[in-house]
Design a protein that fits this description.
Structural class: alpha/beta
Radius of gyration: 18 Å
Helix content: 10-25%
Number of domains: 1
Distance between the termini: 14 Å
């Protein structure tokens, strides 16, 4: 991973950053670290306060976003885990925050996402908070990954795909399904979500006046990969990102990194060339969109920049 950062399962307000917004739906896409279930996260209003502290909040406020009307939460948890790991404890605490009867989830196998409606009682802005948790883990690609155009990934086994998380529904982590799902949720277009969410349509029948909160433990590597891929695929209404909404081909990795650098969390690595994102995951994702093949040679537009 580029600039590996590991969280402690605690809420980090400085990791919360606005990524995109939909003023018509009064909906924000926000990146962050662990929150729900964290011992130091006692009130959903803490999330609103962290958003208001984002340097880019005045711009979205001017665009018409009203945090005082927020009453819904779509939590996108990207944390996979091995049995007995700290990440497992983080996920289980988050599930318990959402419902008194948490489902059993497998942090390593899939298929994903798992949808968990918010059944516990919380209030936000004086009204009952409604919402849903999408458990949709992201995992690293096995090394080595190509570091220049024309390079190839090393598959885990002869004849296998380079990454189960980029396969289609029913075959693992489905990173390529996560990215359009974020855009669809932000735009209140829930019927177009991954077919595995069919049983949860009622819980996603309206995601206006909502925060779509994408996070891992620290809000850096896995979250960074998802947000970088989102910006490269869809752009953003946030002018600071410098990558306006587009409907054309995926943006270059360099354009995406320039955009994501404007919304790095406070705990992201400061060294040049370390963008707080699992770059090989995004390279593979973007390369698939450009070439239509999982194991195609790395396209120049997806080659990593010089450190």
């Amino acid at each position: 991973m580029s600039g590996s950062q590991h969280g402690t399962g605690l809420f980090i307000p400085g990791a919360v950053r606005i990524v995109d917004y939909n003023a018509a739906c009064n909906t924000l896409l926000v990146r962050g670290g662990a929150a729900f279930g964290a011992s130091n996260f006692t009130d959903p209003a803490q999330l609103l306060a962290a958003i208001e502290a984002d340097p880019h909040y005045p711009a979205v406020q001017q665009a018409g976003i009203d945090l005082g009307a927020i009453s819904r939460l779509v939590d996108v948890c990207l944390i996979g885990y091995g049995a007995g790991s700290a990440d497992q404890a983080y996920v289980e605490a988050e599930l318990a925050w959402f419902t008194p009867n948490p489902p059993a989830v497998d942090g390593n196998q899939g298929p994903y996402p798992t949808l968990v409606p918010l059944d516990n009682a919380y209030r936000l802005n004086g009204a009952p908070l409604s919402g849903v948790m999408l458990y949709w883990p992201v995992q690293s690609l096995p090394p080595p990954s190509p570091d220049q155009a024309g390079g190839l990934w090393t598959a885990p086994a002869p004849g296998s795909s380079i990454s189960p998380q980029r396969n289609g529904p029913g075959s693992g982590f489905d990173f390529q399904g996560l990215i359009p799902a974020l855009q669809q949720i932000l735009n209140n277009y829930y019927p177009a979500l991954n077919p595995r969410l069919t049983s949860g349509y009622a819980a996603l029948s309206d995601v206006s006046n909502a925060i779509v909160y994408v996070h891992c433990d620290s809000g850096v590597n896995r979250t960074g990969a998802a947000i970088l891929a989102y910006l490269m695929t869809w752009g953003s209404n946030l002018a600071a990102c410098g990558l306006p909404h587009h409907a054309g081909p995926v943006a270059t990795l360099a354009q995406g990194l320039s955009a994501v650098s404007a919304i790095l969390p406070a705990n992201a690595p400061p060294a040049p060339g370390q963008y707080g994102a699992d770059l090989p995951v995004v390279q593979a994702y973007g390369n698939y969109l450009l070439t239509g093949a999982y194991n195609a040679p790395l396209d120049a537009d997806m080659a990593p920049p010089d450190p």
